[in-house]
């Protein structure tokens, strides 16, 4: 049967001949269009399938494995792919047939294995299409849902439809459309990656003005470290690497539609080296230098979550505003490119399977323009599976669909290597040498054996991680089969084929293979003549052209192709014995084989040199600092020093060097005055170490001004012990550090409403005017502001909350985790500063330390979030039977503020302690804790920590000064130096009340210096209305408010205004408003006094003298107003 007859028979559906005596001969499938040009092939090879695996998935790998394992694993996988693609290139250049590597498995390994691997590969791409469409839609949420609320302004399904239509339109133009689109999109990806590499070097060297980290170097390889999670970290990165490299083999699949595969395939194959070196190894190496592997956002980097992409994150960390959006667009383009490739990969494989009788014959149909239209339609219908993700359980269904072919890449790559090994054996058995090949794999058969072995290692690593995942979780059947389901599927395909065709033999008879069948337009004489002419032409090239050719395609400078390692000697001897069977061997003089070595089979020295460079760079960066730092450290003292008064040399330090020792440095430095201090040891032993660390790399003075405790000589004397030098005179202006080099910690604080009464600007502390306290709910913009430091600036998608249990176990949550995993709870609760009404205590009793609040350091709001007890339970804490040693829940904020509450309050089902992300129905404003704050109803507001980032279950209170010192109260006799250790931290608030407004017409506020009665402006103004609030902590309800118009000699009861709030919670967490009417005739000259009583009959003291304390806390005496 000749070639054409065999192909026609196969299309009619007859199974291929599979006897152990004969070869599974492959005919030329010439119905497909052959319009792919060399530039198409090379761009497919360089950037064809670069997508979310590299741009997003590498983030989770960096987090789980660290920069060391990330680079090493990608190098191993890249080397494996280099070997695999070279093996495939050799086969594809010789046999450019449809379904290439599937056909190679059928022909050289076993028809059953080719059948199983081919359908698994096709299924992989069919499922990848809807996955990539969904991913592309999610990437758009970077713009349509900037706060990562999970509710984008445009539904993801809309974008899925748009991208699916776009992919359909591309298919209309056939393989030419695919090639042109991949050329353009691939070019965009190439430019983006090259741009990132350049910018990454600049960022690492400290060349970005907006990057406060300065010079980074190899800091992140030392801290948090190069390798994370040990052997599991090493294994886990393989999974991402395989996904990222997926599609590299498409260049071989495209061989059947290349215009000149003999020339295009070798060139495209050699481009893979640059793809691996430039796009993966070098870019990921730089990524590990400029993004810390312990960044909590990286753990969410997967799929279309581009806001967590390490590439996007690198720009955000450097303070570059525009590039994150630009690179997100590149990621979107990359994902669309992969979706386009998935249609091509699946349709060409299925068409080839059907054409060889291994599928329904209708799937083999190709139209007049060379398009396998039936399979294309089916592939596009698979794209509609993307809408499954819109269902409530859609992600679960989709995970299992992806699991069906999750190991497809390893099976495909391993099969290519094994097919190449078997091919070479058959090639030699027919008396051929590597000189007879249009293109020989660079590392020969040895490379294919190594590639096959590495594929097996990757499968083993995947098996290990599937069974024993990172984090120590117990083995899970669901998790295991989602990762490894493809293995039994492939085995089932293999066995089903054997059973159906009753072909029990394993493998094929290599000696019966007709080695020249399937070659396109093969003419031995013409081929050899063409090869000779090419070699002669290249020998005449000028040196510059040889260098360019070598750098682009790794051609030998003096020979046409770089050959692989020599084949095993036994196979060479077999080729001699089989030489008489080959017609072509009789037509051509034999080359001597006695040495067993082909002079062109040695690996190119440039590969060896490149491998040394790639392996050496991470090692150099890891082991040491830059030569510039070394030279600076070894500079002679007389070059950079001057004499101090005691005659000892004093080092002169440039401000740029100080900047390099920022918060992330192992040795943080600060400046005070003209002196420079190394505060490494200070940070560890100082209670405010985290605060002073914020000043590292600049001046400490703006931070110390926040706390008067630092403005003492004894503190300066302690700091002096850490002085290492002074600021170089060249950096001083008028003998001072220039103001523009001192970073203002409050520069990013939000703007506040002009109605707020500001007590301090930095940090901002402002109270609500009395007239604005008349509503039951205080509006967000007028809610009192109490800040101890700067307002942290953090993106919602970057936020992480860590729960640390008493046994040291930790669990981390994103804001999205909290929103989706736990029931939402809404509670209306009052917040009151312990210093509210401190001004009144000062006026009555004398000096107090702290902000002089009037009556406005209080507010009532509706808070929405999740119960802390639910989160603790999910984190593994036994809330119903807590350990005896677990006594406190400590809260730590992003700006280093800390506080704690008794554990029983935190886990009490009726305590209503929340982790709140909404305030009065909208996202919490930055001043009030965005993106998450603790709400502890009934307790002093100081325990409701804003910007909470860590919750720790402990046997002791928070160690912060705000728990151990500031928020305490003392007896009137303890004076200005109380014993802080003997007083308990304030928790539940005592009962209090205040007058906020006195109105005739119009309203007047108690916070104003004078009260006026405008009774002449209103007919019914014979009554003056006095209003105010009353509140008691601990959830105790206000039962009575007493008011006096004669300074307490006589009393009457005010009217309690019914609350109009829902979501009151388990107890009376809200304030109570009251009002009282006074005849206008009795109003002038009176002294108003008000006091409240709660349900436990606690009431307010008459004067502040009996509760005076130097901190001015809990100023709850009767509130008096002289009219």
TrEMBL record:
Its EC number is 1.7.1.3, 1.8.3.1. SUPFAM superfamilies: Cytochrome b5-like heme/steroid binding domain (SSF55856), E set domains (SSF81296), Oxidoreductase molybdopterin-binding domain (SSF56524). Pfam families: AA_permease, Cyt-b5, Mo-co_dimer, Oxidored_molyb. GO terms for molecular function: amino acid transmembrane transporter activity; molybdenum ion binding; nitrate reductase (NADPH) activity; sulfite oxidase activity. Residues 997-1006 have a biased composition (Polar residues). It is found in: Membrane; Mitochondrion intermembrane space. Keywords: Amino-acid transport, Heme, Iron, Membrane, Metal-binding, Mitochondrion, Molybdenum, Oxidoreductase, Transmembrane, Transmembrane helix, Transport. Coiled coil: none annotated. Residues 1-26, 632-651, 997-1018 are annotated as: Disordered. This is Nitrate reductase [NADPH]. It comes from Lachnellula willkommii.
């Amino acid at each position: 049967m000749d070639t054409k007859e065999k192909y026609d028979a196969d299309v009619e559906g007859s199974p291929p001949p599979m006897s152990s005596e004969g070869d599974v001969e492959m005919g030329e499938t010439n119905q497909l269009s052959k319009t792919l040009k060399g530039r198409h092939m090379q761009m497919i090879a360089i950037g064809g399938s670069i997508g979310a695996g590299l741009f997003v998935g590498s983030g989770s790998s960096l987090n789980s494995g660290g920069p060391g394992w990330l680079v090493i694993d990608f190098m191993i996988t890249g080397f494996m792919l280099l070997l695999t693609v070279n093996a495939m290139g050799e086969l594809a250049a010789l046999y450019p047939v449809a379904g290439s590597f599937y056909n190679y498995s059928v022909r050289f390994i076993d028809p059953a294995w080719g059948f199983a691997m081919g359908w698994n590969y096709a299924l992989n791409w069919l499922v990848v299409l809807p996955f990539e469409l969904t991913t592309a839609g999610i990437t758009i949420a970077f713009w349509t849902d900037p706060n990562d609320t999970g509710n984008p302004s445009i539904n993801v399904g809309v974008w899925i439809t748009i991208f699916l239509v776009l992919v359909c339109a591309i298919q209309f133009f056939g393989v030419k459309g695919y090639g042109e689109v991949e050329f353009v999109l691939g070019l965009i990806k190439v430019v983006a990656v090259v741009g990132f590499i350049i910018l990454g070097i600049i960022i690492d060297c400290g060349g970005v003005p907006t990057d406060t980290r300065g010079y980074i170097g190899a800091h992140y390889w030392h801290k948090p470290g190069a390798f994370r999670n040990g052997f599991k970290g090493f294994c886990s990165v393989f999974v991402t690497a395989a996904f990222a490299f997926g599609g590299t083999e498409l260049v071989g699949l495209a061989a059947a539609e290349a215009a000149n595969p003999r020339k295009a395939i070798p060139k495209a194959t050699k481009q893979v080296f640059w793809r691996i070196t430039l796009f993966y190894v070098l870019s990921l190496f730089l990524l590990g230098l400029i993004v810390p592997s312990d960044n909590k956002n990286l753990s969410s980097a997967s799929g279309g979550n581009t806001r967590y992409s390490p590439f996007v994150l690198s720009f955000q960390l450097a303070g570059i505003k525009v590039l994150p959006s630009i690179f997100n667009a590149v990621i979107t383009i990359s994902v669309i490119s992969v979706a386009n490739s998935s249609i091509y990969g699946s349709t060409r494989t299925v068409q080839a399977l059907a054409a060889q009788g291994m599928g329904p014959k209708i799937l083999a149909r190709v139209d007049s323009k060379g398009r396998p239209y039936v399979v294309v339609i089916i592939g596009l219908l698979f794209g509609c599976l993307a809408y499954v993700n819109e269902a409530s359980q859609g992600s679960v269904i989709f995970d299992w669909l992806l699991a069906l072919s999750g190991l497809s890449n390893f099976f495909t790559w391993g099969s290519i290597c094994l097919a190449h090994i078997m091919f070479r054996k058959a090639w030699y058995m027919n008396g051929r040498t590597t000189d007879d090949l249009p293109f020989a794999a660079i590392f020969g058969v040895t490379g294919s054996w190594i590639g096959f072995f590495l594929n097996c290692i990757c499968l083993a690593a995947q098996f290990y991680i599937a069974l024993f995942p990172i984090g120590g979780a117990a083995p899970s059947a669901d998790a295991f089969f989602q990762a490894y389901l493809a293995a039994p599927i492939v085995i089932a395909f293999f066995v089903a084929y054997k059973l159906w065709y009753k072909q029990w033999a394993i493998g094929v008879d290599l000696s019966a293979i007709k080695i020249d069948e399937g070659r396109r337009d093969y003419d031995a004489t013409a081929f050899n003549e063409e090869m000779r002419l090419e070699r002669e032409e290249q020998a005449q090239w000028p040196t510059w052209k040889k260098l360019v050719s070598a750098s682009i395609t790794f051609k030998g400078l003096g020979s046409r192709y770089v050959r692989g390692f020599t084949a095993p000697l036994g196979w060479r001897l077999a080729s001699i014995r089989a030489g008489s069977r080959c017609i072509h061997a009789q037509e051509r003089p034999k080359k001597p084989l006695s040495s067993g070595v082909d002079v062109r089979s040695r690996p190119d020295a440039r590969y060896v040199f490149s491998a040394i460079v790639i392996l050496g760079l991470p090692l150099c960066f890891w082991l040491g600092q830059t030569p510039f730092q070394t030279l600076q450290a070894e500079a002679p003292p007389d070059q950079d020093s001057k004499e101090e008064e005691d005659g000892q040399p004093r080092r002169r330090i440039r401000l740029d060097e100080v900047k390099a020792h920022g918060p992330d440095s192992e040795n943080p430095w600060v400046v005070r005055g003209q002196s420079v201090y190394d505060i490494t040891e200070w940070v560890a032993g100082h209670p405010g170490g985290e605060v002073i660390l914020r000043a590292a790399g600049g001046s400490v003075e703006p931070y110390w001004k926040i706390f008067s405790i630092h403005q003492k000589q004894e503190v300066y004397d302690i700091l002096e012990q850490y002085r290492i030098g002074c600021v170089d005179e060249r950096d001083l202006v008028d003998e001072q550090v220039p103001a523009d080099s001192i970073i203002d910690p409050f520069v990013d604080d939000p703007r506040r409403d002009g109605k707020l009464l500001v007590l301090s600007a930095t940090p901002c502390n402002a109270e609500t005017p009395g007239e604005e306290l008349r509503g039951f709910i205080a509006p967000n913009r007028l809610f009192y502001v109490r800040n101890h430091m700067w307002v942290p600036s953090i993106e919602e998608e970057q936020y992480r909350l860590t729960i640390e249990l008493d046994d040291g176990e930790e669990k981390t949550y994103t804001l999205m985790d909290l929103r989706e995993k736990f029931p939402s709870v809404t509670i209306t609760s009052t917040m009151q500063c312990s210093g509210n009404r401190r001004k009144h205590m000062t006026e009555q009793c004398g000096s107090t330390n702290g902000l002089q609040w009037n009556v406005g350091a209080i507010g009532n709001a509706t808070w929405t979030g999740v119960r802390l007890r639910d989160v603790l339970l999910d984190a593994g804490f036994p809330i119903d039977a807590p350990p005896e040693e677990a006594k406190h829940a400590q809260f730590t904020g992003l700006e280093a503020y800390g506080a704690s509450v008794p554990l029983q309050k935190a886990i009490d089902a009726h305590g209503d302690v929340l982790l709140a992300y909404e305030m009065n129905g909208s996202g919490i404003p930055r001043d009030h804790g965005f993106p998450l704050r603790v709400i502890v109803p009934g307790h002093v507001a100081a325990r409701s920590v804003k910007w909470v980032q860590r919750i720790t279950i402990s046997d002791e209170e928070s160690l912060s000064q705000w728990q151990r010192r500031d928020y305490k109260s003392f007896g009137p006799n303890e004076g200005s130096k109380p014993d802080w250790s003997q007083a308990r931290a304030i928790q539940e608030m005592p009962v209090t009340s205040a007058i906020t407004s006195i109105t005739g017409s119009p309203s007047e506020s108690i916070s104003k210096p004078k009260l006026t009665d405008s009774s002449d402006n209103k007919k019914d103004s014979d009554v003056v209305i006095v209003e105010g609030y009353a509140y008691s902590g601990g959830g105790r309800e206000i039962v009575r408010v007493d008011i006096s118009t004669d300074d307490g000699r006589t009393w009457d009861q005010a009217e309690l205004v019914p609350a109009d709030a829902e979501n009151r919670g388990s107890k009376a967490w809200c304030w109570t408003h009251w009002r009282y009417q006074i005849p206008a005739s009795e109003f002038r000259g009176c002294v108003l006094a008000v006091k409240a009583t709660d349900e436990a009959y606690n009431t307010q003291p008459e004067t502040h003298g009996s509760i005076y304390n130097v901190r001015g806390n809990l100023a709850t005496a009767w509130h008096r107003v002289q009219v």
